[in-house]
Amino acid sequence: MKYNMNQGSLAGQIKIGLISFIVYSLGFFPLVIFGSIVLIFISFNEMWHLLLLPFIIYIGIFLTIWYQLLISGLIIHVFKIRYEPGVYNYDFKNKTAFRWRVVHILYTPMRKMLEIFPMGRMKNRYYRLLGMKIGENTLVGGTIMDPCLTEIGDNCTIGLYAVIYAHIHVYEDNKLILKRIKIGNNCIIGAGAYIMPGAVLQDNVKLATGSVVLTDQVLKKDKIYGGIPAKEIIKK
After folding, report:
1. Distances from the Cα of 11 to the Cαs of 1, 4, 81, 92, 98, in angstroms?
2. Whole-angstrom Cα distance, residue 204 to residue 223?
3. Whole-angstrom Cα distance, residue 204 to residue 236?
4. pLDDT digits (tens, 9 = 90+) for 175-185
5. What is the pLDDT of residues 189-222, one digit of tens each?
6. How confident is the model at residue 157 (pLDDT cuts 50, 70, 90)?
7. Secondary structure (3-state) at 135
8. 51: helix, coil or strand?
């Protein structure tokens, strides 16, 4: 039994490694093409050519990030690599847990890039490719850990360093718990706030900086919340 488990784990790791290798390799093709075109027109044998190097590097970085986002997003969208709420065994034999691993191996580096390099509207489009529901005029400044289980309404603002989790990995039981998170319209989430799996923020909720919304907690509409855990703030 132990041998079969290790064999399945190794096979799963190889599959995920191959998927990430293929996807990321495809994302580097535009950079290779761009570099080849640059070398055709610029030989770098004169001093002034070196002055162009920082601009060329910047364009190369931008192209790489943009196409990595596009390719990884399209792969997840076209092949419908999604996962549903529930409690699953955290191993490679479980299909949902495997999909979760695939999404995160492709999404996590891109998420880190989006935290460093703001991509404007491309960010929301990328999240939508991953299955996230985002309303109009919504600014996502924080970190979305599970886009396909996250829903945000219209006219919302998520502050910098806010984190929205839709999963819990219970190491002791080797379980993966997935729950949807729903944020209504006209909500404001302060910088550094944490929203845990299953949380619901109804319309017009304001969440203070550094607050923590617990698992399955519901924040009522038109209210202001703050603290750890988040509690209603009464205006005097």
Report:
1. 15, 10, 19, 8, 12
2. 7
3. 19
4. 999 999 999 99
5. 999 999 999 999 999 999 999 999 999 999 999 9
6. very high
7. coil
8. helix
Cβ neighbourhood burial of 148 (10 Å; 0-12, 13-18, 19+): buried
Is 77 a residue whose pLDDT tops 60?
yes
Name the residue among 131, 220, 147 with its Cα closest to residue 181. 147
Q: Helix axis angle, 2-27 relative to 95-116, nearest 10°? A: 40
Q: Coil, strand, or helix at residue 102?
A: helix
Length of the chain equals: 236
Q: Of 51-55, 87-91, 191-195, 219-223, give the lowest mean pLDDT range.
A: 51-55
Domains detected in the chain: 2-232 (2.160.10.10)
Provide the pairing of β-strand 206-207 with 86-89: unpaired
Reading the block at residue 12, the tokens are 């799963």
pTM: 0.88
Torsion of CA 72, 76, 78, 82, to 10 degrees: -170
